[in-house]
Give the backbone structure.
Amino acid sequence: MTNVKVFSKKEIDITGTPASVQQLNKTDLEKLNSVSVADAAKYFSGVVIKDYGGIGGLKTVSVRSLGANHTAVMYDGIVIGDAQGGQIDLGRLSLDNIQSIQLYSNQPADILIPARSYASASVLALSSLLNNNKERSVTLKLKAGSFGFFNPAFSYKSPVGKNMMQALSAEYQSADGSYHFIDYETGRGRSKRNNAGIKAYRIEYDAAYFISDSNRIKLKLYYYHSKRGLPGAVILYNNISDERLYNASFFAQANWQKNFSAKSRLLISGKFSADHKYYIDPSYPNSFGKLENDFYQNELFFSAAYSYKLFNAVTISYASDYFRSTLKRKDQFAQDFANPTRENFLNSISAQFKKKRIEMFANLLHTAINEKVENGDAGKRLRAFSPAVAASVQVFENFPVRIRASYKKIFRAPTFDDLYYTNIGNTLLRPEYVDQYSVGVTYNYQSAGFIKTMMLTVDGYFNKAKDKIFAAPQQNLFQWTMLNIGRSDAKGIDAAAHIDLKQWRKTMIALRLSYSYQDARDMSDPSLASYKQQIPYTPVHSGSASLSVLIKEFSIAYNILASSYRYKLGDPIPQNVVQGFTTHDISVGYDVLVKSRRYKFLAEANNIFNTQYEIIRYYPMPRFNYRVGLIVSFNK
Amino acid sequence: MKKQLIKWVLPAMVLLNACKKDDVTPGPAVAPTKGVYVLSEGGTGSTLSFRSAAGTVTGDFFLQQNPTIVGGLGNLGNDAIIYGGKMYIMMNLSNVVTVLNASTGIFIANIAFPGGPRFAVGTRGKVFVTAYDATVTAIDTTTLTKASPIAVGPNPEGVAVYGNYMYVVNSGGFNPIPDSTVSVIDLNTNLEIKKIVVGVNPQKIEINSLGDAYVSSYGNFSTILPTISVVNCNTNTLKTTLNSDYVYDHLRIFNDIAYFYNNYAGGPVKVYDTRTNTLVRNNFITDGTTIQVSYGVDVDEENGDVYIADAKNFITAGQVTCFSKDGVKKFHFSVSPGVNPNKIVFLR
């Protein structure tokens, strides 16, 4: 079963790619005391996770000062679509079944992927791929901790016959989430988050069928279900919190990769997804005595990509995607809702030049969007070309320093919420455009000495966003509406270092550092106090450090996250300051093999200095908390 | 849901009937220092600013005068009135009416209004407060206790008094189909005696000296435009609806002159004479001063100066500009850190 290796994702050399990429693999993730993808993504540079606190709280990602709608989240090679809000809640994506996370600023440098992977300003790629272990294995996991956190998980993997692998993974997560916080905003002292509980489960099934070494089919089924309370902002004198959110997501995706020859490769992908979101505010002061939002969203996706190696160093590819999203509303406010359907046609041509010391990538994407509605006006149809180029050069033959540069022009289409939200939506909206320029230096040092490997990357970037979509009052229409009025200029530096020391006796030490500098200015309206000021919730300095030590069966990791102060609104005045913070986490693991069973004991202490901090003002984050866990895996 | 959001985020401004002729206004508790209070509803926390007669502005006056109240004023201050030496601030999201000493800004008490207080009027030694739970409730200004709530229509907004009657507009703005009535309450019995049909989703009510109540309505934010309805308070019947030149959702009347404006759509403030039923001018401002969004308009009863609160882009510090009654700018001041200033109260 050597061909199973096709499944395993190689460790990416973060210093070699023409556009910036960062990666956390399974071992890294185990050290980061993380439950969800959001917790882990905080360790990437250039990233701000907007975290509303708690296990059930919304967590979205902003990369290089751009809004969350500009980052696509990809699961096993196919984008997770959300035409309604356009922002994926990373808090819902559990790390339990994730083998690696990559963050591509710009886009993946792969030549054989669906066109949609090129259609956003950055891509967060999650891989749950089966590893190349051909044995049958069972893993049982139980984690529990503060705030009633209870998280059993099960996974099973086995070969089926000679040419097939399959895996099943299931997980349950619950927490009452009612953590204590020091309420310095409203002066009530020690208070408790109310209505912060969550119950969620996830079931995932994967299968891979190897027809031959050069021909394989993969299938994935995914279901997630959650019920949670929405604790809301801390409001002076008002402790009422009873809003709830129910969510069910299903998707089935498959792809078929056939290599006709070493030069000629084909990838066909398809996906169907269905989402149901139900929100209720049971104390809403209307005649029903409640407010309900009941939305159903479906997406159908097809993609065909073909790549051909023209010469030794040059590969070209063509990818064509079609996807269709529909949104239906079924609550008491549904009668006039647009119930839109959006059809997307994406076509992309790409070229890659790859030699030992030089790598270049160029691609041109064409997007066509057509929209239909059941009520009212439909959003504008859209036709756009989006170019991207990137290059990386190792200047000296024997010195592992590379210089890289990239440019990409891309947009995010208005979401269904932007276009059709009752009374607010504006069907005349244009997309939000971003020009991204980036220049970087990388250094990849390997030696037999004290430092085994050291990878350093420093990238400077300039992002110019225009036609940013904001809610604004509109003259003469007598309504608030979404408008393309925002502009912003963001200059920044992302730096990262990964250092692995030489193994000494049975001790291994690794260090990961990241630092981000973001100078992101609002350029929208010169008449406002916020003009040329830092964009709200964007820290100028932020960073992380993670030190891990492995001594025989013991592993210890120490993680630090830090952020400078931010402003909650555009005016740079003391009253708008959200204080900077630093959090420190420790985890200890004991890993032992007893008769082919691997036992791993885990203990995590988070926020060990009991710091009270906020990422979003009036949404206090948890102070000290802990988790303990046991993982048992056995192979047969 | 967004229509409701609008209503939470962009509440109307109230009319102040505290000085109406039928009021029995108790004397002030201490000798007042003259000045102007500005209530800003805030992006998250509300603020109360104060500009003294000498022109000194304190952005967060509440915090300065009440440093031990850590959380500040609370959330979503919709309206404030001074009545009998006390200031009453309707804190809609915090579900309280905050009572201050009007002269000093020093905190006296919070009165719980779980229904979410909106607007208030002072009359007969009481302050009547509308709340989203379809009620209007009197506060005794001496004991600061609440009387039994009076039932009105859904999501009441503005409130005004004329003679023996109190008029409460019922917006029903949280319903898929909004309300469009004004409840008439007999102040002798505290019972609703009648509902008068006005425009859809009514917000504000102001009454002139003839007993004509002007009611502004939002409409339904799409097909139905804002309107101004006129109710005759002497007969409690609908008198007329102003023509399509008057598409306004907010208004303020002083000395029988109405100032019409749109509190989130922006555009000029229109001046109208309610005694002669004639247009005075299309743009109140005559010297070319620009206001981005007139979020609140109030008139200084001492000299007729008109104060316009500008919410700008709703996420930056607001500004208040004072004009003479002829529309010529006198001065302006920022209410920073206040965001979305919506109510100016005069300490005279």
Q: What stands out?
A: Chain A is about 5% helix and 60% strand. Confidence is low (pLDDT under 50) at residues 1-9, 474-479 of chain A.
